[in-house]
């Protein structure tokens, strides 16, 4: 049972530490000197939090997901490129093993990670502090993701003008996915092993159960860093997210190769998803308060999600359109643009409203909103976007997801994979967040739920 942390940490002070999760006093004292601790110097036999509740189906889920999801990525990509594009096709259009590997793909993946790491390290943009950690410290993060996107775009334009065949990404997509999956496995193993050298307070509360399979999956260490380089923060929004729109552009170039010009459907898919990625990087600072950064350890779940799942499944629509061209009427396109615009409006306004409220509740854009007090001292919004449903940002995100699939027509289910998967992800995420909020805010959260009864879709869910 998670309890409020007592035992605060201050620079240069020796004190005993309370394990916040099971309320047990740890069997040693730690001398804190700024952000380093003596305990960091030698491998720790950490006391596992066996009481920690298991998520994602516990050990069974943590064993099956790392096998099943990478295969799903390869399966979806294979089906998407087949003429039938049918997920129920039997036998499935599996790609021969020899076509899954290409050394060029490995070079491109390593080059891509190196480029994005270099851009991450550039001393441009501001530096922000994350939330206060369990040891009382706050980590610093470079906010230069939008710069990374802009520089990458400029480099790509130069490369395309110099004749680089970006459309070849279509041919290379399966070997690229194999390399990204391999990289996420290697990274997760590295993260798991190095976590045994991390101080106890640097571990995530949910990924330190003592079960190796589960901990490998959930991630033991909360904020693994090499020097100032934050591995989880880097992976969250850079290589995978920017990689996704580069792959989309590759599909557009492939369409140009095949049919001389990009279709309206392809332009819409590229435009909508570019807007989404640009928005995420423009508002990069907001990621510092998300569940992924604040709560989840860095293990296979996030590494695979960031490096392989996002870039290779979120853009299936563009890949589908290369093999299955669609014609869109002006009316249809207008309706889809309006749907995406409405989704984006709800998504952006609601996220900005909460972020502004959490940063400065006295700001004139949020001071008039009705709130309820909680025992933690933090207040909860019960009017404005957060009085409409409990997760208005998820509602906007789902409307956008639908708008990304509609340009692919109604003949196949495959381009709707993202919206179907994303609906289940957000329902699950909402349940996880709800549980954490109930643990944090207790009765005040129940009052909020009574005041705002619908979770994501008004009058339905
Ligand atoms: P949210 O931005 O929805 O934040 C949830 C937190 O907000 C709660 O834990 C609570 O934290 C705070 N909160 C909840 N209700 C209120 C309220 N009434 N008043 C004030 N604060 C409240 O979390 P996510 O990280 O799940 O989502 C962020 C965005 O990322 C969303 O738009 C989502 O759609 C998107 N997303 C996209 C994904 C993708 O793959 N495309 C994957 C996951 C998310 P506290 O009180 O501690 O501040």
Bound small-molecule species: NADPH dihydro-nicotinamide-adenine-dinucleotide phosphate
Overall pLDDT level: 87
Backbone CA Rg: 23 Å
Strand fraction? 5-15%
Choose one word for the global shape.
globular
Strand order of the largest sheet: 1-2-3
Low-confidence runs of at least 5 consecutive residues: 1-42
Specify the helix fraction band: 40-55%
Elements, N to C (H/E): EEEHHEEHHHEEHHHHHHHEEHHH
State the end-to-end distance: 28 Å
Helix count from the secondary structure assignment: 15
SS elements, strand count: 9
The chain-level structural class is mainly alpha
Report the major sheet: 3 strands, antiparallel
Written account of the structure:
- The chain is mainly α.
- It has 15 helices and nine strands.
- A hairpin with a 5-residue loop joins strand 8 and strand 9.
- Helix 1 (58-81) packs antiparallel against helix 4 (169-194) and helix 1 packs parallel to helix 10.
- The longest helix has 30 residues, at 330-359.
- It is globular, with a radius of gyration of 23 Å.
- Residues 290-291, 347, 351, 354, 357-358, 378, 380-381, 386, 391, 393-394, 397, 429, 433, 436-437, 448 line the site of NADPH dihydro-nicotinamide-adenine-dinucleotide phosphate.
């Amino acid at each position: 049972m998670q309890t409020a942390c007592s035992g605060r940490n201050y620079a240069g002070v020796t004190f005993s530490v309370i394990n916040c999760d099971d309320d047990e006093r740890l069997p040693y004292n730690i001398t804190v000197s700024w952000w380093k601790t003596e305990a960091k110097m030698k491998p720790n036999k950490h006391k596992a939090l066996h009481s920690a509740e298991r998520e994602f189906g516990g050990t069974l889920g943590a064993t099956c997901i790392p096998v099943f999801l990478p295969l799903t990525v390869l399966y979806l990509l294979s089906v998407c490129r087949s003429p039938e594009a049918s997920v129920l096709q039997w036998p499935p259009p599996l790609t021969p093993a020899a076509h899954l590997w290409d050394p060029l793909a490995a070079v491109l993946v390593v080059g891509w990670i190196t480029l994005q790491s270099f851009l991450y390290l550039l001393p441009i943009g501001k530096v922000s502090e994350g939330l206060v950690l369990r040891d009382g410290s706050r980590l610093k993060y470079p906010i230069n993701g939008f710069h990374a996107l802009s520089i990458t775009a400029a480099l790509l334009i130069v490369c395309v003008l110099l004749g680089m065949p970006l459309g070849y990404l279509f041919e290379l997509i399966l070997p690229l996915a194999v390399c990204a999956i391999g990289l996420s496995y290697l990274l997760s193993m590295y993260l798991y092993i190095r976590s045994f050298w991390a101080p106890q307070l640097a571990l995530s509360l949910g990924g330190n159960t003592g079960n190796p399979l589960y901990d490998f999956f959930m991630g033991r260490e909360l904020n693994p860093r090499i020097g100032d380089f934050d591995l989880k923060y880097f992976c969250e929004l850079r290589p995978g997210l920017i990689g996704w729109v580069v792959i989309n552009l590759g599909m557009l170039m492939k369409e140009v190769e095949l049919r001389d010009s990009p279709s309206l459907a392809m332009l819409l898919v590229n435009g909508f998803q570019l807007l989404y990625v640009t928005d995420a990087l423009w508002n990069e600072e907001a990621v510092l308060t998300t569940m992924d950064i604040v709560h989840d350890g860095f293990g296979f779940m996030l590494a695979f999600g960031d490096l392989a799942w996002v870039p290779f499944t979120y853009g299936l629509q563009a890949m589908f359109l290369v093999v299955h061209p669609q014609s869109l009427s002006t009316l249809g396109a207008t309706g889809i643009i309006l749907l995406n615009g409405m989704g984006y409006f709800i998504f952006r306004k609601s996220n900005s409203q909460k972020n502004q409220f959490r940063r400065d509740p006295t700001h004139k854009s949020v001071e008039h909103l009705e709130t309820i007090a909680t025992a933690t001292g933090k207040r909860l919004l019960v009017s404005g976007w957060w009085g409409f449903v409990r997760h208005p940002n998820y509602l906007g995100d789902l409307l956008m997801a639908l708008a990304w699939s509609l340009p692919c027509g109604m003949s196949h289910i495959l381009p709707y994979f993202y919206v179907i998967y994303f609906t289940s992800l957000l329902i699950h995420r909402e349940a996880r967040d709800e549980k954490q909020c109930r643990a944090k805010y207790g009765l005040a959260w129940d009052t909020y739920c009574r005041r705002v009864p619908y979770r994501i879709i008004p009058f339905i869910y």
